[in-house]
Amino acid sequence: MINPVLVETVRGGIVDLRHRGAVAVSDADGRLVWSTGDVERPVYPRSAIKLFQALPLVESGAADRYGLNDKQLAFACSSHSAEEGHVSTAEAMLKAAGLGEADLECGAHWPLFSQQALIDFARSGKTPNNLHNNCSGKHAGFLCAACHQGLEPVGYVNAAHEIQRQARAAQEDMTGFPLGDEMGGIDGCSIPAYAFPLRSLAYGFARAATGNRLGVERAKAAKRLMDACMANPWFTAGTERFCTRIMEAGEGRIFAKTGADGAYVAALPGAGLGIALKCDDGSGQAAEIMLASVLLRLLGQDDDLRVRLEPLASRTIRNWKGIEVAEMRPVSA
Amino acid sequence: MINPVLVETVRGGIVDLRHRGAVAVSDADGRLVWSTGDVERPVYPRSAIKLFQALPLVESGAADRYGLNDKQLAFACSSHSAEEGHVSTAEAMLKAAGLGEADLECGAHWPLFSQQALIDFARSGKTPNNLHNNCSGKHAGFLCAACHQGLEPVGYVNAAHEIQRQARAAQEDMTGFPLGDEMGGIDGCSIPAYAFPLRSLAYGFARAATGNRLGVERAKAAKRLMDACMANPWFTAGTERFCTRIMEAGEGRIFAKTGADGAYVAALPGAGLGIALKCDDGSGQAAEIMLASVLLRLLGQDDDLRVRLEPLASRTIRNWKGIEVAEMRPVSA
């Protein structure tokens, strides 16, 4: 099955670029409400799955033990831009568990998400450490969960560590998709990365949004994390990031989380729907347009959210002189 | 017609990303020697066409009048990394024609091609100007050609300016593809961008490599530019850039030039072949692997070039800790 073209870039009247992909929209009973492309083949959600990976942090009692607030819980689900407030949040979470930057095993990288942020960072004379890794919030969450449970923190990124076993079990439970050994890759931040059908991911996020068919504690934890993200979009991403803009536009009605290489998940808690998509070629920009586009499809024609989402569903590309040269736009599937 | 998958990324045993594209290999008589995908549909070569755009610089006598050496001619065909030697070359070419940075109309941008180059540039405290634009060599060439011919330099980027008319005519002549008005877009550096079938582009570069069916002066100019590029790969791109690496590996047997959004052209002058390809989704990395892959296809099994090209035909992806997490590799078409 060849996935359809969902986004194209037009330059001078010619379609110049084509991005294929697949999208699943599920309700909390696992019914596929809408889909396009192959939603059964496993794909890597990468960081889009972080909310599920953060469930043990809440369910174990670690979040309460260390007094984590909603900003910190949102940050535990984030792929952040390493702005000052992000770095200090990572530090504060680690400090609450009696740990520090050196305990993180995510690795260091320069700011990824904006050229200006990278320029500013380089000019400040700083060099990146583990705290600046876009996944440091998730890792701080893993470490809090480990310390609270009396687990050895060293090696917490390995598949065999109890923390990763808990994260894996949460992902399996939420998606209802049994993870065989062959589904395991390694993520950018060194933890195991598992692949899921988009259909199962969409189902999982519909359940997280509604609590449907979840145990009481898991339903409570999922709602707490999703509400924390929607209330604190900047802590899940950063200034001008697409997740931030979508959730700010949604004003508590949309949860959205990006993953590397063209993955995106979202939920509309009011409608009881979960969404998962993947751009075949890994383009993050195309995945963003796919997400805004499917959200618009799911909203009523007179929903006042439309006017805030429509500008996010296409992109005018300007050249170095500011001249409009191309447009990236959705293709109706 | 749906183009085939030519490059894929595998992570944890699963194909995670797929890049489709089309490739044309032509001889200098216009015979398609090998192809895959749709090579008849016009696509934008973008900067991959720069050698043809530089023909009037040589043919008009401007290159000789201003004493441009082979490094400067290679630079006129370049998409450079704005390293120090690139910026000074742009300045020297402009100075030869009695002009300076302010006469360039390409616009300014920060270094594009390497994160480390951007970090170093930002740390130096500099801000980019027109000289740092990756197209400043081509633009310096346009200005030299304009001044030598007594043309008003202001507005040389506009489609109606004589310099752009000459560049357009050279592109039409080399490819044998008549450009209708509807084929015109605007490039990143504000000059007109035209779309061509990959088949016509490949034919054009086979002719440039051989001089076949070209007038004496045009054949001489094309050979002079192509030889200049192959002898000075760093001036056509920059340190560790793919064009540089391919041409260094080729040691005078391969010409290669990248264009934005997944375009690549190349030539094997010894074999009398031209190559043009485009990755459907605009991925530059995938286009690089497509290029190395088609070059390997065209070389004999015992050609000693193979050992230098094979490492360029796939890519191991490592995470922030240096762990191998994925592989980008060609898919046989």
Structure at a glance:
Two copies of one chain form a homodimer. Chain A is of the alpha+beta class and 333 residues long.
Provide structural commentary:
Two copies of one chain form a homodimer. The first copy, chain A, is an alpha+beta fold and 333 residues long. The first copy, chain A, has a single domain (5-330), classed as Beta-lactamase (3-Layer(aba) Sandwich). Helices cover 39% and strands 20% of the residues of chain A. Chain A is built from 14 helices and twelve strands. Chain A has helices at 50-53, 55-59, 62-65, 70-76, 84-96, 115-123, 136-148, 162-175, 198-210, 216-231, 233-236, 242-250, 284-298, 306-309; strands spanning 5-11, 14-27, 32-36, 42-43, 184-186, 192-194, 196-197, 255-259, 263-268, 273-279, 315-318, 324-330. In chain A, strands 1, 2, 3, 8, 9, 10, 11 and 12 form an eight-stranded antiparallel β-sheet that branches. In chain A, strands 4-7 form a two-stranded antiparallel ribbon. In chain A, α4 (70-76) packs across α10. The model of chain A has no long low-confidence stretch (mean pLDDT 96). Chains A and B meet through β2, β4, α6 and β5 of A and β2, β4, α6 and β5 of B.
Please describe the structure with a list of short key phrases separated by commas or semicolons.
eight-stranded antiparallel beta sheet; homodimer; 333 residues; Beta-lactamase; alpha+beta
Write the layout of secondary structure elements.
The structure is a homodimer of 333-residue chains.
Chain A: E1 5-11, E2 14-27, E3 32-36, E4 42-43, H1 50-53, H2 55-59, H3 62-65, H4 70-76, H5 84-96, H6 115-123, H7 136-148, H8 162-175, E5 184-186, E6 192-194, E7 196-197, H9 198-210, H10 216-231, H11 233-236, H12 242-250, E8 255-259, E9 263-268, E10 273-279, H13 284-298, H14 306-309, E11 315-318, E12 324-330
Antiparallel strand pairs in A: 1-2, 1-12, 2-3, 2-10, 4-7, 5-6, 8-9, 9-10, 11-12
Helix pairs in contact in A: 4-7, 4-10, 5-7, 8-9, 9-10
